[in-house]
Design a protein that fits this description.
Blueprint: H1 5-17, E1 21-23, E2 26-32, E3 38-48, E4 52-54, H2 57-64, E5 70-74, E6 78-83, E7 89-93, E8 114-118, H3 120-133, E9 137-142, E10 146-152, E11 162-170, E12 174-179, E13 190-195, E14 199-204, E15 210-216, E16 222-223
Antiparallel strand pairs: 1-4, 2-3, 3-15, 5-6, 6-7, 8-11, 8-13, 9-10, 9-12, 10-11, 12-16, 13-14, 14-15
Length: 224
């Protein structure tokens, strides 16, 4: 088996959310953060036949990078990673599954009160503003036919803020708060849905790539 460039990019991103992962039979990959406030799921082109765990995903990806083109052969306790010539290889042992943090059930997204598209440029602007201002909270509020995204310190009413409007639709009066540090998505454009039940969904808009993140909202969020 070879892993595609898209799959390797997803695994690298998942390693930033949780550095261990449980692979299950089939074509779905998922991960959950240690705090259980970020969950991500992807459908990839490859299909795994067995269940196995990797404790240090960053290390495993570094092993794969040692080869220009990798060939993976799976055994009961390990995977052999080699080059196409067969001259060099690495035996990489699986982890005890009990040592891993992995999702135990799928998320059923409630009916959302807010929907908008977050494009890559806007996401980049938000993260740059957060770094410049030293804030890590994103306030999401309704506007006149738009959704207003504001980088703010909600504990300081006089803090400097950065805001940007995006087209969207919503119901009710709300101030949904996201921790910007949790927005660990692969760069791209996303369909965003937010529910007053303190959960948000970010679905990547890219043909041929099925990737979704669910981020918990901060408990300081309000809706009425």
């Amino acid at each position: 088996m070879n892993l595609s460039t898209d799959t390797l990019a997803i695994l690298k991103n998942f390693s930033e959310i949780n550095n261990n992962i449980l692979f299950k039979p089939g074509s779905k990959l998922n991960t959950i953060s240690a705090m259980k406030n970020i969950l991500a799921e992807a459908t990839i082109t490859e299909k795994f036949d067995t269940e196995f765990g990797i404790y240090d995903l960053s290390e495993f990806l570094s092993v794969l990078s040692l080869f220009d083109t990798t060939n993976l052969k799976f055994d009961e306790t390990h995977v052999t990673v080699g080059d196409v010539s067969g001259r060099s290889k690495i035996k990489y042992f699986f982890s005890d599954i009990d040592m891993l943090t992995s999702p135990t059930k799928a998320i059923e997204m409630p009916n959302p009160e807010v929907k908008f598209v977050l494009d890559q440029d806007t996401l980049g602007r938000i993260k740059k503003a957060a770094s410049a201002l030293g804030h890590d909270q994103l306030s999401i509020t309704p506007g006149d036919g738009v959704i207003t995204l504001t980088v703010v310190d909600i504990d300081n009413a006089t803090s400097n803020t950065y805001s940007i409007d995006v087209p969207g639709e919503s119901t009710g009066d709300f101030n949904f708060i996201l921790n910007i540090k949790n927005m660990q998505m692969i760069p791209g454009n996303y369909d965003v849905s937010i529910s007053s039940r303190l959960i948000s969904q970010f679905s990547l808009i890219q043909e041929g790539v099925d990737l979704t993140y669910w981020l918990a909202l901060e408990k300081t969020s309000t809706y009425k």
